[in-house]
Design a protein that fits this description.
The structure is a single chain. The chain has 251 residues and is mainly α. It has ten helices and five strands. Strands 3-4-5 form a three-stranded mixed beta sheet. The protein has a two-stranded antiparallel ribbon with strand order 1-2. α2 (36-47) packs antiparallel against α4. The longest helix has 23 residues, at 83-105.
């Protein structure tokens, strides 16, 4: 028998070789990397408790997953993304960036102990340098005009809405934001009706971003009740604001 020769003189043998190689090549191909949303969800489920508190100490000890997420935050191509993809990305990027900034300085009692945490520190997000406030305002509040983002963004304080253990994804974003808003606005630690005093105490978020909600006083109660069908707040209640708790949301 003649030894096999790789030659154009043997087209049948060449086709056989290609046919044998293709399945092998498919088997040897590297698995696709998880999407940013999927990787963020895996991270959150590992380090965020059901009550929304974050295990910063554990992340500090094993920072590889966080570093990988932050690298994606820095290099993401926002211009090539759809509007929904950008919105989901920036929501996740905000929460991941805040966690990263805390872990870098951990142990930490409160982000308010870090001068300029929100308006001076600069971070790279999708190739741009910006502060956390600029990320919130310029990439989310202004472009999308969606007050529900305030219940998705978590600034590492106990006064914030509870951090979701599920990252936001473009395909399910609207449903996720609706569900998250309902969870927050029916949370008795966040919205506090007082039947005896005939008032409702709400987070100072509603004061700071009153223009986003376009709903001061009775109109705010109407906004809240859109998500509180089972526990509506009487329209006659007065609205008051409880003090924001800036202690770190760790646990």
């Amino acid at each position: 028998m003649q030894p096999f020769e790789f030659s154009l003189m043997h087209p049948t043998r060449l086709l056989l070789l290609v046919a044998l190689w293709l399945p092998l090549g498919g088997l040897l191909a590297a698995p696709a990397a998880p999407s940013f949303a999927a990787a963020t969800s895996a991270f959150l489920q590992k380090y965020v408790r059901a009550d929304g508190n974050v295990n910063y100490a554990a992340i500090k000890k094993q920072p590889a997953e966080l570093k990988a997420l932050l690298q994606t935050v820095q290099s993401f191509d926002a211009k090539a993304a759809s509007a929904a993809e950008r919105k989901a990305f920036y929501l996740n990027a905000y929460n991941v960036t805040v966690i990263g900034a805390v872990v870098e300085r951990y142990p930490l009692a409160s982000v308010m102990k870090v001068p300029g945490f929100f308006d001076k520190l600069k971070f790279t997000v999708a190739g741009e340098q910006m502060t956390i406030n600029e990320l919130e305002t310029n990439k989310l509040r202004k472009p999308y005009n969606d007050p529900r983002i305030h219940f998705a963004l978590v600034c590492a304080a106990k006064g914030c809405p509870r951090l979701s253990r599920e990252a936001f994804a473009a395909a399910t974003l609207d449903a996720q934001l609706a569900a998250q808003t309902k969870r927050v606005l029916t949370d008795p630690t966040f919205i506090r009706p007082d039947a005896k005093a005939k008032k409702v105490q709400v987070s100072e978020i509603f004061k700071w971003y009153a223009a986003d909600f376009k709903a001061p006083g009775p109109a705010l109660i109407h906004y809240l009740n859109q998500y509180r069908a089972a526990q509506p707040i009487p329209a006659t209640y007065t609205v008051d604001y409880y003090a924001y708790d800036w202690s770190l949301n760790e646990g």
